[in-house]
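During the reporting period the student researcher (J.K.) took over the structure-prediction task from the postdoctoral fellow and processed the backlog of single-chain submissions. One of the processed entries is reproduced below for the supervisory committee.
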Amino acid sequence: MDCRHCSKPLETTVADLGTSPPSNAYLREEDLAKPEATFPLRVLVCTDCWLVQTEDFVRAGLMFSDDYAYFSSFSTTWVEHAKAYVKAMIDRFELTPEDMVVEVAANDGYLLQFVQEAGIQCCGVEPTHGTAEAARSKGVEIVEEFFGVACATTMIASHRASLMAANNVLAHVPDINDFVRGFALLLAPNGVATFEFPHLLNLITHNQFDTIYHEHYSYLSLTAVTAVFETNGLSVFDVEQIPTHGGSLRVFAQRSDTGARPVGPAIGRLLEEETTAGVTTADFYAQLQTNAERIKNELLRFLEQAKTERKLVAGYGAAAKGNTMLNFAGVDGESIAFVVDRNPEKVGRYLPGSHIPVVEEEILRQQRPDYVVILPWNLESEIREQLAYVAEWGARFVTAVPELTIH
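J.K. obtained the following structure tokens:
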């Protein structure tokens, strides 16, 4: 395989997590008797541009299908994050009703609803039909396509953007060059594009290997993103480190040809931090596989002990990262009886690979498990607050990343 950005051959493996189905390919009951498609889950790093990337096996259309089950609005923490983002961008860039805000990967309208409330024009781009319809039900205009040069070209006549938002989507695109060029096309001459994504530095140093799954084509450092943007008509002028998803970056970019904002000091500081950590050396990436194996073994020992003691273990959060963990460890319904989720699109289905049933929260109250494994560990505080009532029967919370912790 060649690098998706610079086309150099990829020869350095970061992690090999075996084989698994796509992490958001939830199953219906009738699917359980059918063969399930699984694919190798391997990640490599380009030692030329330092873009970390999943080896190509799965087409984007297979993962981001009409029944795609991830709806952003079911996380109150994430909706509050979006609300704060909108206010901050309106204030910083002095957006008015004459401006146009475009969000790429608008999902169910979780963010653009706040742009509308502020009286500013907006439009979302969202390729998955179910989430696009949910956004339209909020009154948000949606272009139902995958974003890139072709999509941007058709939108230019009516949607030249003062602000473009791309939260947790840059890692999800197979053709990262085409995707970024689309932003350079659609931005107004002095427009701004912001991109949020989990920071590669945290993935490696905090053992966040479960954020690796087929939907994530890339794992991003500021070093790699700067190179990708410069090649495709954007220049980075600022960066913020934010706490979402276990530690993310919010990168601010402008058109290379017309943008006039000066480069802020945070860029140089973070690039230096990445270099010092070793992001531009192959040795930096060698630790991830060892730590992934350790975390897997810690989880399996806990589950085996719980089974020996006849303890009931449930999961919370039918999240993609949880599916990576469960499938890498080979966990199934014998060890975790069920997984609770607030998203009705997931309830009644089964997790891909492990085939653990996804149930509504009332089942948690009925079954009273001894342990609740929080699979989306990045939402641990929100979930523990939401499920505080499990203390009534003495249940304890468990997280596996960055190390097994019983709360």
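The committee noted the following: Residues 287-308 form the longest helix (22 residues).
J.K. will present the remaining backlog at the next meeting.
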